[in-house]
Structures are given as C-alpha cells and as structure tokens.
Amino acid sequence: MNAYASPLERAWYIGLRVLVGLVLAFLVLPILVIIPLSFNSDSFLMYPMSGFSLRWYEDFLTSPSWQQSLKNSLIVSPAATIIAMALGTLASIGLVRSDFPGKTLLMAVLISPMVVPLVIVGVAMYLFFAPLGLTGTYTGLILSHAVLGVPFVITTVTATLQGFDFNMVRAAASLGANPVTAFFRVTLPLVAPGVISGGLFAFATSFDEVVVTLFMASPQQATLPRQMFSGIRENISPTIAAVATILIVLSTLMLITLEALRRRNERIRGARTA
Amino acid sequence: MPTETLSLSAPPNDPVVGLKQRLRRAERRRKLLYGALILPLALFLAIAFIWPIAALLKRSVDNPEVHGALPQTLAVLKHWSGDELPPAEAYAALTRELTAIRGTPELGTAAKRLNRETPGYRSLIMKTARKMPLDDGVDPQGALMSIDSRWSDVDIWQTIKRTGSPYTAFYMLSALDLTIDADGDLAATPPEESIYLDILGRTFWMSLIVAVCCLLLGFPVAYLMANLPQDKSNNLMIFVLLPFWTSVLVRVAAWIVLLQNDGLVNQALIALGITDAPLQLVFNRIGVYIAMVHILLPFMVLPLYSVMKGISPVYMRAAMSLGCPPFKSFWKVYFPQTLPGIGAGSLLVFIICMGYYITPALLGSPQEQMVSYFIAFYTNQTINWGMAAALSAVLLAATLVLYVFYARRLGASQAPAGR
C-alpha cells in the first residue's frame, strides 16, 4: 500500500482485509464461544451466563459413562496410532525406495481409506467383522481405526522421505552398520518429525472418529466422540461444553506440536540447501 | 562384501560387463527388498479394508434368500416354461422345503424377499408353512391350492423363479429408481415409491452449494495469505488450522449452541432489529449448510493457498506496467493461474461433503439427509443390506470418479508450487 494508491485501490485493500477478518472470525469464534459456557453455573447453554462454576467438569470427571468413554478413547486411539505408524512408516520407506510397475496404483490404494466415505467403511467393516465376532470388541475397533489412520502416516512420511538423502544409509552401511542398525540409528531419527506428525494425524483421526465407531463399537466400547454424538443427539448439556473445551485445548496442543515439527523440518531443509 | 570378491573372479575377458550386471542385480535385489517393506501394510489393508468393501459391494447383487431356502423347488422350476402351471414335482418340492424350514429365520427372510417382489407374498408363505407338514398320501398340488388359491396362479410361481437366481440387479436398479416390470423390461419405479434419485440429487446439490460457499469465502482468505509476508500469513494460518484440528463434534455442538432459538446469533439479530422473533437456524437446511461450510472451509483454503503461493507476482506487474488496470489484470492474468487450486479445492470439498454423515444427522431434519444417512438407515434400522450395499456402490462410484479427477488436478496444481 503506497501513498499514490487510488481511492478504489484503497477501498479494495481495506475491503479485502475486512472480508478476510470476517471469514476468519466465522472460523474461530464459534469454537471460542463454547468455552465460557462450560463454566456456567446453571444448566442452560446460553448467554448471558449466570455465574462461574466447575460443576460440569466435575460431572465429566465423576460420571461413569463419560469416564468409561474417556478410558475407551485412551485405549483405542493410541493402539490404532501405533499400528498405523509402524505399518505406514515401513511401507513409506518401501514405496520411496523401490520401483515396480503399478507403484502409483498401489499408493492410491494405500491412501484410499482417506477417500472412501466413512459410512461405507463403517457398514463394510461391520458386516465383515460381525461374523468373525470382532464387532463390539476393542480389537475390531482398534483395527478399524488403524485402517483410517494409515493414509495420513503414508502421505506425511513419504513427503518427508522425498527430502531424505539416502547416501546417509549408504554411509552407515559402509561404516559397518547392518540394515536394522542403520534404520534405527540413522534413518528413523532423521525422518522422525514426519513419522511423529503422521502419527499425530492418525491419532487425531481416531480420537475424533465417530461414524465407523457407531457401527463397530458396542456401548461398552463407546469412545469420547461416540459419547458426545449421543449426548448432542439426545440433550445437549453443559457437560458437553466442558468436554468440548478439553478437546479444544488438546487440539491446540497438537497444532502447536505439529507447527514446531514443521518449522524444525523447514530449518533442517533450509540448512542443507544453503 | 561377497559381491566384490565375486566381481574380482569374473570372466577376465570383459570385467566391466560382469560388474555392471552384478551391480544391476544387486540394485534389483535391493529394490525388491525395499518393496517387501510394503507387504505388511498391503496385507493388512487387503484384509481389513479392501476385502470388507468388496464383500459389501457384492451384497448389492447378492440374492441369497430364496436361493438358499428353496433350492429343490428352484431346480424343478428351472426347466419350467412359465406359461402354464408348474409340474406336480414343483408343488411336492415346495411342500418338502417349507416343512423343512418352517419356524426357522430362513423362512422369514425368504418370505420377506418374495414380498418385496410381490406384495402379499409374505402372508402367503407364512400361511402355507403353518399348514405343514401335509398328511401322508395327500397330493401336494391339490393341498397347496386348497390352502390358498394363489398357488394356482402362474405369476406367483414366476416370482419364485425370478427371485431364486443367486444374483439380482434389483437393488442396483432400485438405487437408481429403476425396476424390471412384468414383461422383463427396464422401467421407472412408480413415482410414489421412487425416492433414491431424489436423495442422490439432494446429495449432489447440497455438496455443490457447500463447495461454492467454501470457494467464495476461502478465495479471499487464501489470496490475502499468499500475498502477505511469511510471518503474517503464518499467523493467519493458525486461524484456519485451529478449527481444522478441532473435533467435528465440538464444532457441531458449538453451532447448535450458537444457532438455537435463544442462541447468540438470534439474540444478535433481535438486538439489531433484523427480526422480531427468533429465526429457525438449526435442525434445518440452513444449519447444515453453515456447519458444513465451517467444517470444510479449511479444505478449500489450504490447496488454494498452496497454488497461489506458487504464482509469481511478475506477471501481474508486467500486465500493469503495460497499462492494464489492476482489476482487469487480476481477472485476466492472476485469476486464470489460480484455476488448478480452485478445481482441487472445490473437488475436495465436494467429495468430502458428498459422503458426510455426522452434520446432517445432528443438525438436519429428515429433509437434509444425504445418501450416507440412508446407507446407515438400511444397515441398522431395516436390515436391508442389499439396499445399503447398492447405495454404497453408487456413492463409492461417484466418489472415486471425482477422486481420480481430483488426483489429476492436484498433479497439475502442485507443479507450479514446487517450482
């Protein structure tokens, strides 16, 4: 913006910023609005608030069904993430380092769980796992969540490996490291940011998953989002606002971690190309 | 390494070729070894994902009910012309088989399946099965006809024959509001029964509106971010990424709180004098649109931003230095370069929206439910898996076609960004 701008350009300059400000407010304000309501002392989810209280957090921490769902989420999501990370990282290294006809197609198939509508995944897995006795079990739920997390690990880890110099592995081998040692001592530490952010994506996917869970889980395995889903559907109470606030804090933490990883990765890349 | 000692003992006449071959072989072995790393995941997905989906799709043409319940009757009917009443063995076989399966769930599912083809069939089968077994020495044909006169109706037998094949196009055709009429020709389902084209059309239409709204809101955001200094645009990016990372259920809950009758939005509208009485903003289409746009907007902004980031500012400057007014040069020079991003973002939003379940389920009335809802409905409520599978097949086909389109677009859009 300079002093010679015409009034029209000035209007455009200001108008664009106002418009973008409004859109960003539309994106963020609804999320922020629910936070104060979780501290409301009466049971109505509306403003003006009548007073400050922590009773809804107490309700969350003492209600058996919310506690069970929190426990279930803390069992299912980490387990699914570990499976997705282990299988996904191995496969990503394989994908980047090997060459065979149909590789692009295979890659497309490996990331297809991200594309197929969740209801289809849910129904398909339900009908397939039910005769095997795996619906309504932790095993079945963990496996289904692992499937959904895999594409995120594949995309982030292959992207990180694109910038990985495989001469490092050759150097390790020439210095006498066997492939397994070279993997754990050289490759893994260097691609760790990619693996961790892929894992975070997989974790977030599982931790927020409700559609496939609706089909695969019995009430005993109801996860936190599943519990929220029925809570919202039946009668939306301030306890939901309290859970929402906790989840917002959690997602902010994940966002900060990811951003730090991204900046670290950028710094390393910048240092290498400089 | 053993390969090196081997290469020393290679035929002395052409050591270079021998070494090359060995190198190529070692290289191939290495690639094969790395390829093997993909196997565990490929196996896992094949068993836990591809197979279930293939099995689901197969159900859309499966027709096991009558085929499984009345195999002998069907074997007799196979050689029956269908013009006059079937032979006496058909009556005998049917009596035998009804006797064998009466009281089992198999009879119920077969009766239900026949009833879907010809209304009233269920009661006919149940009524007949209750009279089983027949007394010894009774002629099955006469007995069946006296139990219900419909057993002397050729059409009733044709229905058994028709629904008895192990595969059927019935569900797939129904999903497109088509049916096979009595003459065996393709025909449109009668209007009072045809609902699926409506649902598919609604799904497409709602996804289109959401994609257009996301584009209109996302374009200015991406444009400003791409043209600000990096540190400022990184800060703006947080506003896009925070909702992106926030649980969808949190956002749905937030919108219910905001849009309800005495929510903040209605309070503000009344305070501003825009309306006297609260507007119905949630549990209808408006609520679904608002929440869907909110949820999917980041999916529009991110690809748009990455494309715009790769557009060099020199083209705009060149156009303006040649005398083109700013708005015209924006429209003629800058905007066409953003088209790959617009295509990628819109397709992505459209694809995700088309398969969405949570938002319409929680924020919509029955008039807002899209294909996904009906797939879940047929699976959980009416246990009509054939119909659920057929609708899944239609939705999956639409998704995959658009996804292939998207993957091509993305390939095109990443080229300038990577430069």
From TrEMBL, chain A:
TM stretches of this protein: 12-39, 74-93, 105-129, 141-161, 182-204, 236-258
GO biological process: transmembrane transport
Signal sequence range: none
Subcellular location: Cell inner membrane; Cell membrane
Keywords: Cell inner membrane, Cell membrane, Membrane, Transmembrane, Transmembrane helix, Transport
Tagged with keyword Nucleotide-binding: no
PROSITE patterns xrefs: ABC_TM1
InterPro entries: MetI-like, MetI-like_sf
Membrane topology note: Multi-pass membrane protein
Domain ABC transmembrane type-1: 70-258
Assigned protein family: Belongs to the binding-protein-dependent transport system permease family.
Protein name, UniProt field: ABC transporter permease
Automatic annotation (TrEMBL), chain B:
Protein origin, superkingdom: Bacteria
A Pfam family of this chain: BPD_transp_1
Membrane-spanning intervals of the chain: 32-54, 204-224, 236-258, 286-307, 338-363, 383-406
PROSITE patterns in the cross-refs: ABC_TM1
Compartments where found: Cell membrane
InterPro entries: MetI-like, MetI-like_sf
Membrane topology: Multi-pass membrane protein
CDD domains attached to this UniProt entry: TM_PBP2
Gene3D superfamilies named among the record's database cross-references: MetI-like (1.10.3720.10)
Keywords linked to the UniProt accession: Cell membrane, Membrane, Transmembrane, Transmembrane helix, Transport
Domain annotation ABC transmembrane type-1: ranges: 200-406
One GO location term (cellular component): plasma membrane
Example GO biological process: transmembrane transport
Family in the record: Belongs to the binding-protein-dependent transport system permease family. CysTW subfamily.
Protein name (database record): ABC transporter permease
Organism in which the protein naturally occurs: Denitromonas iodatirespirans
